[in-house]
Structures are given as C-alpha cells and as structure tokens.
Write a structure and sequence with these properties.
This protein is α+β, with helices and mostly antiparallel strands. Among the domains are: 259 residues, 2-Layer Sandwich (Beta-Lactamase); 316 residues, no CATH class. 66% of the residues lie in helices and 8% in strands. It is built from 14 helices and 11 strands. Strands 1, 2, 3, 4, 5 and 6 form a 6-stranded antiparallel sheet that branches. Strands 8-7-11-10-9 form a 5-stranded antiparallel sheet. A hairpin with an 8-residue loop joins strand 4 and strand 5. The longest helix is centred in the middle third of the chain and has 170 residues.
C-alpha cells in the first residue's frame, strides 16, 4: 500500500528518502515539544487560577471569622448582670468603658447602651454620640421590633460622621446590636472597616489587591485602608466596582478565578491601589451574607512561571530539531554515498561484468553488504558452470524418456482395449503382462487377477440373488400371519387395561370415603376428649375459686386492720412534704448565688476578649447562667408539685376511709360466691365421668376405621400396578405389530431388489459356473439358518464356492449391495457407468 503511494523517483533514491525521514522526525520532535510545552503551561495556568480562587476563599473565611468574633464579643457583653437588673446608668457607663477597653484596638469605634424606642444613647464608650441618628445608624427602624437576647444582628456598611478627625468627615464602619433583658434596651458595638485591612491574609503580598463589595457591588473594605491613610481624594468607600465581566462570573454562585487580558479601570488604577497591569487575574468568593471578596493579581506576577516554561520548552524543542537534522545529515550522507557506489557495481554485474571490484574498507552493515555481493558473485560463477554441465546431461536423458514414452503409449492403448471390453460385460478379456516397464507389467497382472475375481463374484451374486428372493417371499408370508395374531392380542390386552382402569377408579373412591369416615371419627374422639378436659378443668377451677374466695375473705379482714395504719402513714407524709418545702427554698437560694457567679464570669470573659480562649470562656459563662436559671425554675416547679402532693394526700385519706366500708361489703359477697362454686364443682365432676366413657368408645371406632382404610390403600396400590402392567403389555403388542409390518415391507423390498440384481447380472458374460449340488446345499443351509433366525457369515458372503483353480476375492454383501439400482445404470451402452457399478 505504501509503495503505491510513494512516487517511484523517491523510492529509487536512498538519500532523498533518508532526508525526508529526517524531516518527518524533526517535525515530529518539534510538534511533540510544542504540544508538551503547551500542556505543561496550561497545567500551570490552571494551578495558578486554583491558587487565586483559594486566596479569595481564604479572604472570605477571614471576613466571616471577623464578623463571628464581633458577634461573640457583643453576645458575651450583653450577658452581664448590670444590664439585666435595675438600671443604673453610672454602673453601665463604667461597665461599657471596661468592655470597650478590652475590644481589639485596631478596629473598635464605640460600645453603646441605647433606648430602642427613642434611639437615645443612655451610656457608652469610645465615640459617644447623643443618639443613634447622630452616628447615621442605618437600622434605627429595626430597633423598634422585639430584639432577641441571643441572636446578634448586623447593619450594612455605612459612613459614620467623624467630628474628631481633621482630614475626613466620616469613617467606614459596621455596627452589631442585640437586645438585653429590658424590653426597650439594646447594646450596640461599632467597628471600623478601614482598619480591618491589617488583618487580611494576603495584605502583604506584592502585586495583589484585595477588595470587598457589598450586595450592590459597592466597595466596603479592602487591603489599602479604603484610602483613609492618605487624604479625602483617595477615599474609595462605597465606590462602584467597574468590571461587569467579573461581577457576572460572581453571580454564578460558586468560587472561581478569571483571567482578563486588559487593564483594570480607574478605580483600581488610581490611588490608593495604583494597580494598573496590562493583564490580571481575579479570584472571587461570596460570603454567607452576600458580600463579594475579590483578589486581584497582576498577570506577570501570577503567570511568570507559565511564560518561563513556554520559553524554555520552545528553546528545548528547537535544539532537539537542530540536533536531529545535523546528526541525520552526517550519518545519511556517508551511508547514501556508499549505497550509491554499491548500486553502480551491482548494475555492472547485472550487465555481465563479474570481475567488478567489490572491496570496501567499511566494517559495518554496508561493509558486510559489499562482502555479501562478493560472495554472491563467486557463487554465481560456479553456478553458471554447473548449469552448462547439467544442460548436456538433460539432453541425453530427454532422448531416453522419449523412447520410453512411445512404448508406454502403445501398452496403454492395449490395456485400454481390454478394460473397455470388460466394461461392456466381457469379463473373459485379459491383458498381456509382457512389457519393457515393470510398472506396466504389474498393472497388467493385477488387472487380470481383478477381472478373474469379478467374474467369480458375478456368478456368486446370481446364485445369491435367487436364494434371497425365495427367502424374502417366505418371510413376507410368515410376518403377515404373526402380525394378524399380534393385532388380536393387542385388542384383548387393551380391553383388560380398560377394565383395570375402571377397577382402580372404584377402589380410589372407596379409599376416599373410608379416609373421610376415619377422619370424622377421630375428630369426634378428639372433641370428646376436649370436652372431658374442659369439665375437669371446670371442676378444678371451681375448687380453686372456692379457695380464692376464702382467701379474699381473709384479705378483706386484713385490709380492715391495715386501714388505720394507712391513715397514720398519710399523716407522716404531710410532715415529710413540709420538710421538702424547706429544702426547696434552700435550692432557690443556691440558684440565685449561681446566677451571680455566671454574671461575674461574663465580666471576666469581656476583660479577656483578646486571649485565644475568649469564645470558650464566654460560652461557659452563658451556660452557667442558663443552668442557674434552670435550677431556680426547677425549685419553683418542685414547690408547686409539693403543694399538689399535699392536697392529693388529703384526698387519698378520705378515699381510704370510703374503701374500708366497701371492703366489708365485698367480704359478704365473696362468702356467697364461695358457696355457689362448691355446687358447680360437684356437677362438673359428674359431667367429666360421662364424657370419658363416650371418648373411649369413639377412639375404638376410629382405630377400626384406620385398619379398613389401610386395607383399601393396599387394594388401590395393587389395582394401579395391574393397570400399569396392562398398559405396558398393550404398548408392547402395538410396537410388535408395527415392527412386523416394517419387516414385511422390508422383505418385499428385498425380494424386488434380488430380482433386479439377477436381471442386472444376466448382462455379464462369464465362463465361471456354480455346481448345482453346492447350490442346493447352500439353499438348504440358508433355509435352516433362516428357521433359526440368522444367516451364517459364509452364506452372507454369497452362498457359493469358487472353483479351486481361482483365487476367491473378499466380498461383503451389505446394505449397499441391494440398493434399488435403476436399470439405466446397468445399460451396456454406458461402459463408464458399468465400471462405476
């Protein structure tokens, strides 16, 4: 296939083919190198984007932790007892000052205790405005609602007026607020969003800018203090983010990163960011409350390694291609020159110049190829000399073979005439075995022996065909008589089988009825036994009921005696209830003290808010307070339960008095029931005795029924066996009749085939004869053997003897010897068909 595609001019020039292969190898190396370099660069680029996405995820997690920390600080501070008891503004003022001092100093703004209805600031620390409206608090309307004491709420980012600063009119802040025990009071903490820049994980990374947007895409935090470290012109708080492609990617809802082949807008390009690369990468993540974290990194910073890998890969690919070309050219040039010289010398050898110089100084494959051509030239010279000698010998042998061929043709014609005569039916024809060729003489001798055997065989077949026809007629007559008798026997046996079937059906019906009678008798016996058992159990139950009634009378007497004791126990119960009431008061006092301990723990939690275990300590304090409140509630519930128990005890005492009267009345009724149970026991014993007599008689009847059923089963089994045997005999008789019919048909066919064989054999001319006495003896022997049901092996081989002066041939008379041969196949006019027969 490749040879047909490659041009002949290219296939004839090794140097051109070698150069083309080098070019393909060089191009392949270059393509593979470039593809691998691109794949590595793509892999590194994907990893860079994944790192950028992870940076955004970390920044979002940091923002979530910052909000959660502020929530926890506010929640811990709100649990203080000073905020839940009688309002004392001076104590609250001092408490808030302590709490404010413990807040993170880099972002704290104020801690306020406010009236939720009016928005008035009742106490505070840090920037302490008179009202929430004065600090531009955005959730003033939400304070009018019922605030939870356990869930901290957050405002959106907003600009709080700053009267203490000379450079800025406001600050970017966020407030957290929660309700306290009082219905119209709340605690508010405010933190500076600009000062949070120092807490960002990637704040110190060069070439990277982090911005945080609210749900509306406005800038609310970053890693550059929102421009508050410069002047008013650099403040970017609540500026809108400019890149719509980034915002569209963020709205898909999953964290990711995007590469932008453009410069950022004026917001990032100007102060305070001065982030203006030619291209950049943005990682994005959305927090749980909808704020968007964006991490921007310059493209040269993020993909510097990718560009280096691409350059190194391209350079390595170029070097590989050059090396392949240089080495291939050096090797191919010398190889092509040697092959061209060898090709020229081979062409001279082809023209007949066998004295060409085939020496070479090379010892590689090319040198061995020169040596091979030299050896081939020497061998070729010797072969040419041998071929000339062989040609002379072949010419002499050709003359001898021509003479032999003429002799063989004449003998073949002679043998052909003899075979044609035999084929036409003259089995006396013979061949002359005298010949110059031993093979032809052997053929003539073997053919003469074969014709002699065929002549004797045809004579035996004629005699055997006559015997077979006679025997077939006798077998046909006998089989007809046997078939008629078999049909009569088959009809009689079928009638016997039908009678056995009817007998078997009758026995099966008797067996079914007997089994039903036996089953009914057994059920009656079982029912009688059950009734007897019930009567016996009734008598025993009556006696036991009598004893139980007597015991009940005794128990009633004991109840009357214990009635007074129970009344005294109820009096003791009232005394114990009074003691438990005193214990409950003590538990309530302990709960109050535990509550105070929890409030002190809240104060300590607020003071240690900067330590690593602040959250855990505050949580424990809250749990202790809740536990103390639960203990107090439990004590109140116990007190109420004791009052209920005391009332129940008084009601139970009255019930016990009524029970005593009822016990006396029940005692009289039980005595009357005991007398009646004694009479029932006497009647039940008499009933049990009568039923036992009935049960014994029924069991005896059931035993007799089972014996009858067993005998009927045996008769049914015998009947089934008789039916089966009769059916088997009937089937055998039918099979015998069918077999005799087939035998009769086969005998008729055999007689017809024997007649056809005799007619066919009459067409052959033979000198062999079969002695009449031997023929008669053979027929007698065949008749005797047929009477005994078989034919001996000698008769099966023809039933005649071959004269002593002829060698008999083995002849087997099988099914093929009596085929219905069509007369046209034995037509003497078709010698080929006769030879085939």
């Amino acid at each position: 296939m490749i040879r047909r595609l490659v041009p002949a001019a290219l296939r004839r020039r090794y140097a051109l083919k070698f150069g083309l292969v080098l070019l393909v190898i060089a191009l392949s190396v270059g393509a593979i190198g470039l593809v691998e370099t691109a794949m590595v660069a793509d892999s590194v680029e994907e990893r860079v984007l994944a790192d950028q996405r992870q940076s955004a995820v970390e920044e979002a997690a940091s923002l979530e932790r910052w909000n959660d920390r502020n929530d926890q600080l506010l929640l811990s501070a709100a649990q203080a007892p000073v905020l839940g008891g009688e309002e004392n503004e001076s104590e609250i003022e001092n408490y808030l000052a302590d709490v404010y001092g413990e807040l993170p100093d880099n972002a704290r703004t104020n801690a306020l205790y406010v009236d939720t209805e009016t928005g008035e600031v009742l106490a505070g620390a840090g920037d302490d405005p008179d009202t929430l409206e004065g600090m531009a608090f955005p959730d003033g309307e939400k304070l009018d609602d019922d605030l939870s004491e356990y869930v901290v709420q957050r405002t959106d980012a907003y600009a709080m007026p700053d009267e203490t600063s000379l450079a800025f009119d406001h600050r970017a802040v966020r407030s957290y607020y929660i309700g306290v025990d009082e219905d119209d009071r709340a605690l508010v903490f405010t933190f500076d969003l600009a000062e949070r820049s120092s807490e960002m994980p990637v704040a110190t990374r060069s070439g990277t800018t982090v911005t945080i947007l609210d749900e509306d895409g406005r800038l609310v935090a970053d890693d550059a203090y929102l421009g508050y470290r410069e002047d008013r012109e650099t403040v970017v708080f609540e500026e809108s983010y400019e890149n719509d492609a980034v915002l569209a990617a963020v709205r898909e809802g999953t964290p990711g990163a995007i590469r932008l082949e453009e410069s950022p807008g004026d917001l990032l390009g100007g102060e305070p960011y001065e982030f203006a690369p030619e291209g950049y990468v943005v990682g994005y993540q959305t927090t749980n409350e909808g704020w968007i974290v964006l991490v921007h990194t310059a493209e040269e910073q993020a993909f510097g390694l990718v560009d280096s890998i691409a350059q190194v890969g391209a350079l390595a690919t170029l070097v590989g291609v050059v090396l392949v070309g240089v080495l291939g050219a050096a090797i191919g040039r010398t190889t092509a020159a040697s092959i061209d010289r060898l090709t020229e010398k081979a062409a001279r050898m082809e023209e007949g110049d066998l004295d060409v110089d085939l020496e070479s100084s090379r010892i590689d494959n090319i040198g061995r190829l020169y040596d091979g051509f030299d050896a081939m030239r020497t061998e070729l010279k010797a072969t040419i000399a041998e071929a000339e000698d062989a040609r002379a010998a072949a010419e002499a042998e050709r003359d001898r073979l021509e003479r032999l061929n003429r002799h063989l043709e004449s003998k073949a014609d002679e043998y052909s005439d003899a075979m044609e005569a035999a084929a036409e039916g003259d089995l006396t024809a013979r061949m002359d075995p005298e010949s110059e060729n031993e093979a032809m003489a052997a053929i003539a001798t073997d053919a003469n022996e074969m014709l002699a055997e065929m002549e004797a065989t045809v004579a035996r077949l004629s005699a055997f065909a006559t015997d077979v026809a006679t025997a077939a007629e006798q077998v046909t007559a006998s089989s007809e008589e046997v078939r008629a008798a078999s049909e009569e026997v088959s009809g009689s046996i079928q009638e016997i089988a039908d009678g056995a079937d009817r007998q078997n059906d009758a026995v099966q019906s008797i067996e079914t009825e007997t089994n039903a009678l036996s089953t009914t008798t057994e059920e009656i016996a079982a029912s009688s036994n059950e009734v007897a058992d019930v009567a016996d159990r009734t008598a025993r139950a009556s006696r036991e009921g009598n004893r139980a009634a007597q015991e009940a009378i005794d128990a009633c007497d004991d109840l009357v005696a214990e009635h007074g004791t129970v009344v005294e126990e109820f009096e003791d119960l009232r005394t114990e209830v009074d003691r438990i009431t005193s214990l409950t008061d003590t538990i309530a006092e302990i709960a109050e003290q535990t509550n105070m301990l929890a409030l002190n723990a809240n104060i300590e939690a607020a003071r240690s808010s900067e330590s690593s275990d602040t959250d855990g300590f505050a949580t424990v304090a809250a749990e202790v307070k809740e536990l103390s409140q639960e203990v107090k509630d439990a004590a109140d519930r116990i007190d109420g339960r004791l009052e209920s128990i005391e009332g129940q005890a008084e009601r139970s005492a009255r019930t016990v008095d009524r029970t005593g009267d009822e016990v006396e009345r029940v005692t009289d009724l039980v005595s009357e029931a005991a007398t009646a149970l004694e009479g029932i026991a006497d009647h039940a014993e008499a009933t049990s005795a009568g039923i036992e007599d009935i049960s014994a008689a029924t069991e005896e009847q059931a035993s007799s029924s089972e014996e009858v059923a067993a005998m009927v089963d045996e008769v049914a089994t015998i009947s089934e066996e008789t039916t089966a045997e009769a059916e088997s005999v009937a089937a055998a008789a039918e099979e015998q009749t069918s077999a005799l019919t087939e035998v009769s048909g086969s005998a008729d066919d055999l007689s017809q085939q024997a007649n056809a064989l005799s007619a066919a054999l009459d067409r052959f001319e033979t000198d062999a004869t079969v002695d009449s006495k031997e023929e008669s003896d053979d027929r007698s022997d065949s008749s005797d053997e047929s009477d005994r049901g078989g034919i001996s092996s000698d008769e099966s081989n023809g039933g005649s003897e071959v004269p002593e002066d002829e060698t008999p041939a083995a002849f087997e008379f099988d099914d093929a010897g009596v085929d219905d041969t069509d007369e046209t196949e034995m037509d003497p006019a078709s010698p080929d068909e006769e030879r085939g027969g």
